[in-house]
Design brief:
The protein is an alpha/beta fold. Helix content is 36%, strand content 18%.
């Protein structure tokens, strides 16, 4: 019989996902490890783990790992990649970690054109710490810290990281993808592979944003969140490549 599928070597054998049922984090981790396998880089990769739900990836991904203080993953990745340029380096961060407390580190690394890759998981909430409003929370969305809905006059508007980073000259690759359905999973995998290939070619900073869900804090079933992503969230965060030098 022809073998058509196997577990990526970058996932711990027998690993059980710590992510909530229906969360797209598991799919993203799977995509990333499959791409790294295809590039034959599993033994030459280091990922910098962000704080929050992204931190659960440490029990899932079987590769060298550095746990960063909250928001500091891009600063650590910059240093690590400069010290070990032959290593495939990526950060794995959520919206609060990357776009709030870590906004300065993210923009500064991108502006310098640091040669590593950011995997940015945007689910519009602080998933692990109680469902607080995040930098990417949609206007009108009720959270534990915006019980009447996000009000632009009080809280500002959702931050668009791909659009923001696209204003800089240095980044080499910037894309926004989702895992809300099978065709988009394939597109997301292609974007991650392209970002890693850009890094291996020495082209500089690459950034892939995943528009994802959070069934637990959104108060929806997993299937309802997929419809909400497609019908509502993607209107605010359109998919596509924003930079491909």
């Amino acid at each position: 019989m022809e073998k058509i599928y196997s577990r990526a070597s970058g996932i711990f054998e027998g690993a059980v996902s710590g992510f909530c049922p229906g969360c797209m984090h598991s799919t993203i981790c799977k995509i990333v490890t499959q791409v790294i396998d295809e590039l034959n880089m599993t033994d030459h990769t280091c990922f910098i783990q962000g704080v929050g739900c992204c931190g659960l990836s440490i029990t899932y991904l079987d590769m060298d790992t550095i746990s960063a203080p909250h928001g500091r993953a891009c600063a650590i990745a910059s240093a690590f990649k400069r010290c070990a340029p032959e290593t495939l380096v990526f950060t794995y961060q959520g919206d609060g970690d990357l776009a709030s407390i870590g906004l300065a580190e993210t923009i500064s690394a991108a502006n310098r054109g640091e040669n590593f890759t950011v995997i940015f998981v945007n689910n519009g909430t602080y998933g692990m710490t109680g469902g607080q409003m995040a930098p990417t929370t949609l206007v009108g969305t009720k959270t534990t810290t915006s019980p009447y809905g996000r009000d632009p006059g009080e809280h500002g508007y959702p931050i668009h990281m791909c659009e923001l980073l696209s204003q800089l000259s240095a980044p080499a690759y910037i894309a926004r993808v989702t895992c809300a359905d099978v065709p988009n999973v394939r597109k997301a995998k292609a974007a991650v592979k392209k970002a890693f290939e850009y890094q291996l070619a020495g082209k500089g900073f690459s950034f892939v944003e995943f528009v994802t869900n959070c069934p637990t804090n959104w108060g929806m079933s997993p299937l309802e969140t997929l419809d909400y992503v497609r019908d509502t969230v993607l209107n605010e965060f359109p998919l596509g490549e924003f930079r491909a030098k």
